[in-house]
Structure formats: C-alpha cells, structure tokens
Amino acid sequence: MTIRYITLFFAFIFISGCAGWDTDTTGRITQKAMVVSAHPLASEVGSDILRRGGNAVDAAVAVQFALAVVYPDAGNIGGGGFLVLRQQDGSVDALDYREKAPGKARRDMYLDEQGNVVEELSFKGHLAAGVPGTVDGMVEAHERYGSMPWAELVQPAVELAAKGFPLTRKEAKKLNEQRKDFIQYNTQRPSFIIQDRWREGDNLRLAELAHTLKRIRDRGRAGFYEGETAELIVAEMQRGGGIISKADLAGYRSVWRQPLTGQVGDYRIISMPPPSSGGIALMQLLSIAEDYPLKDWGWNSAEAAHLMVEAERRVYADRARHLGDPDFYDVPVEALLDTDYIRSRMDGVSLQKATDSDAVSAGMPAPVESPNTTHYSIVDQEGNAVSVTTTLNSSFGSKVFVAGAGFLLNNEMDDFSVKPGHPNSYGLVGGEANAVAPGKRMLSSMTPTILERDGQLYMVIGSMGGSTIITTVYQIILNVTVHGMSMQGAVNAGRFHHQWRPDWILSEWGALGFGTGLEMWWRGHRIAPKNGGIGRAAGILVLPDGRLEGGADPRGDDAAAGF
Ligand code: DON
After folding, report:
1. Which residue minimizes the CA distance to atom 5 of ligand 1?
2. 211 phi, psi to nearest 5 deg
C-alpha cells in the first residue's frame, strides 16, 4: 500500500512537470547529407568529411575519433560499439566492435569467497575494463567501405586534441563531478584533473591523447593494439591490478555480423543482432505494437502507455533469460522473433490492470531446428546511411586513464551478469547466457537502427541510455510512424521505460502527464520519476521530397550538421 501512496504522490508531482516537451518543432533540414551526434564539433568534423566527398563510413570513422576527444564521457578509443550500415543500393551490414572479456577473466571474478558480489568491482577501476574494440572496428569499417585515406579521417581528432577545444557548460560540470573518482581510480594524475574547477569555455587540451591518435593515424590497428600504446595499456593494468594482457590486445578482432532485419507494417527494420539485445527487443516491441490501435489511443495516453509497459515487461524478461554473446551461447534468435511466439507473450495480458513482474517470466520459444554511450547517425550525398552507437559503458567508463596515452578505459565488464539474478548498474539481471567467460562479449542494449519504407531509406536512429536505449528507440520510431511527429519532435518527446525488473515505470518528468500518470497508478503500475532524462538520441528522417531532417537531442549538447 505504501508504494501506492508514494506513486500517487509522484503522479501529483507530475502536474508540475507537465510543461514543455516540444513535440511540434522541426529539426535542422539539409538538402543532401547530414551528421547528428552528441557534440557540435564532432558533427562538424563528420559534415566536413562528407563535403570533401567522403562517404558515410568515412564520416563515421572521423566522428568516432572526434568524439573520443570532445565527448570523453562516452566517445572513446578505449571502449567499443556497434555500427549498422545501409548502402544506397539497399545492401546492409553490421559491425560488432564490442569489448571482450580478457583471457584471464573468470565467471566468479567479481565475487568474494562467500560467493557475494563485491560492489563496484565490475564497475569502477582496472578490473571493470574489457578489451577495447573501437580502433579495430574503425579499421575494419574503413577497410571494407571507406573511400578516403585513413590518415585524413583521424587527423581532425589529432588536431582537436593537440590544440584543445572549449568545454560546454554540461561537459565542464561533468568533469568536475568526476574529480573524486578520477583521483581514486588512477595511479597517475590524468589531465582531466586541474587545480581549480572546470568552467564553460575553458580550453581542454589533451596532449597525450593527441600522441596516441597520431600513432593510430600513422599505423592503424598496430598504433593501438601493438607497440607503445599496447605497452602503456598493459603497464596501466599492472599498476592498477587489471588483467588485460598484450595477447588480449593483439588478438582483438571485431566481427561482421548479419544485421537483424524484419518487416513491421510499412517499415523494414534493420538493427543490431546479438551480442546486442537491442535489435531483437526492438523487433518484438514493434511487432506487438502493430496489433493494437496505438494511434487511436493517442500519444502517451494511459491505454497506449499501459500496453507498451506490459510488452516491455515481457520482452526484458526474455532478454534476461535468453540473450548473450552468440559466439558463446546459442541465442534462439529466430524463435524469439517468430510472430506466433511474440503474440503468445501477450496472451492473457489485461488491457486494464498492470501485471506483477513476479508473475512474468521469460517465454520458452520453440527450439529452432537448424542451427554515458553515444549514438551518431549519418546519411551521405549518395544516400548511404550509417547508424553507430559507441560506449565506455557508464560516464567516463572505469574512470581509469591509461597513463601516458591519455584515454579512458571502459567499464563494460559490468554488462555481464556477474552472478545470476544480481542486478547490474542498469538494474538488469541475467544468467547463464550472459555469464563472464574469457574472450566473451558482454550483452548490450545498444540499438543502432535503420528503417526503410517502400524499399527506400526512411530513418536512421539510435540512442544512449543503458537498458533504456531499446525503449527510447522504440518510442521515437512510434512517435514518427504512428503519431506523425517530426524527427525533432519525436526525439524531444517525453519518454518512459519498463524493464521487467525492477517492477516500476521510469518516467521523465511530466512525460506521461497528470491524467495518464494517475490512471496508470490506478491500473496498478508503479511510477518512479527519472531525473536527468531517459536516453539521448540522434536521428535523421528522409522527408518525402528527399531532404533530410535531423533530430538532435535537447537533453545534451547534440547537434545536426550537413548541407
Ligand atoms: O551496451 C550497453 O548496453 C551499455 N553498456 C550502454 C551504456 C549506456 O548507454 C550508457 N549511457 N547511459
């Protein structure tokens, strides 16, 4: 009962939050080409590459390295990501440059002698880092699809790091908030720590990072996974008690995978397969939405929000049970995407009353007989599209800088299920499918996605936000395809999220509005407000006349650039 009163309280609080989700606005429009990313300088770098005749993959490589400089909380060379591509001729591809568990990783490495989870061990410090995949991913993407010389794509990042760039207000604040962790988790003082506090407009110069980027510019993969950079990473591990070895670095390879594709209504969805959970979950959610009159119910009405939450509850239960690295665990992809199976998950769901998550478990799909993240979206002048989500996991990753090399290492190991049923930092639970094993990739929620309509490119979309990435991408797609919003309006619109466990709806302030909030409570849902926003998305919509509309998220410093 107490929970009910608490949620009622929050529902009332929502009245004050009802102001301002500007969904009636239009984003930046360009004629031919566009980049939307988390930082205006990175978007400009990408747009400049496109202007010089580079294709979408060239621009993606340049944006990835630029973000590693100007957006260090998630842009990275010490992390990993996923890239989904659709070429102008309709062919598709997906690159998995997700981090891997080091060779010395063990299933119980984050447990004490009693078998209890040691808090924060998978989340902060040297043991939290997986073997980085970003540089290999960019080299692979460039080798297969790039058209401009590699060095020209890395050079803008070298210059930004060497000359420095002005901090935005949000970035200065974030760096100040991290000061304590940076001191605690580093054996040598990183350049992000200054005597004073960072202020908006301060110039941030990253000289060591500039040198590392030069090595990558001049030697490609070997500039990171071998030689001086590799030695600096291994020395950092030895000082801080980490386990990434020279052999782990030399052996890292990203993997080209078959993108997950499927038709939902008028749209063909092209998204990331495992080790991302995003593509499967998104397809399941969109397929369920197809069966209900969401448009008639209205955007964020109680009927629509209730249905979406009930679907999310079941889809995330499947995620916890069935999804992990396909190179280690037999993920029943086809069975999970079977239309009858997806429908069966909604059997018996009340359209009036919330289900208790304890009463929901993962489904048993029929066996198949045969065998602080950031997103950027790019469309080039030829109509090639790239959708990339890349991450260190949480903001500034493990907080560990590779001393002498000037970059941060990820804390992606926390995306594994460190003990069955034990929630990770996003509250996600898992089991066997996502247990730690040497060389295994940890399950991800990153959902870089491309939509086609009538065989033509329609939308490029993705987001940051940990477990909320999937529901963010889901809502934005529905906002455009069902509720008729512009790309910018759809990105601006307030969001909510349910992930089976914990059993509550996270909602941005006022996203559901007072009436819906109250009715949802009455139906038995628990609602918790989410400060600081849910997700940060970057989308591009192809308008009927062929122009491009950008959706840059007002929750950050995001910007669209193009021509
Ligand atoms: O791969 C994942 O699902 C997470 N490591 C993503 C982290 C993320 O989105 C951080 N942003 N809040």
Report:
1. 393
2. -65, -40
The residues, ordered by sequence, that sit 6+ positions from 60 with a Cβ below 8 Å of its Cβ are: 46, 83, 141, 376, 378, 386, 388
* pLDDT per position as a tens digit, 53-85: 999 999 999 999 999 999 999 999 999 999 999
List all residues 6 or more positions away from 55 whose beta carbon is below 8 Å from its beta carbon.
Answer: 145, 146, 147, 380, 382, 384
How far is residue 313's CA from residue 321's CA, in Å, rounded to a whole number? 13
The rounded Cα 484 to chain-centroid distance in angstroms is: 25
Q: What is the pLDDT of residue 16?
A: 42
Among 99, 373, 531, which is best to mutate for testing ligand 1, by the most ligand atoms less than 8 A from CB?
Answer: 373
455 Rama class: left (phi>0) / alpha (psi -120 to 50) / beta = left
- Residue 259 makes CB contacts below 8 A (sequence gap 6+) with 84, 92, 93, 94, 270, 271, 272, 273, 279
Structure tokens at 196: 């004073």
Catalytic residue among 373, 390, 468, 516: 373
pLDDT for 233-277, tens place per residue? 999 999 999 999 999 999 999 999 999 999 999 999 999 999 999
> Which atom of ligand 1 is found nearest the CA of 98?
1
Residues near ligand 1 (Cβ within 6 A): 372-373, 391, 393-394, 412, 415, 444-446, 464-466, 469
Active-site residue 373, yes or no?
yes
Q: How many CA atoms lie within 13 A of 148 on its CB side?
A: 22
Contact 511, 531 (CB under 8 A): no
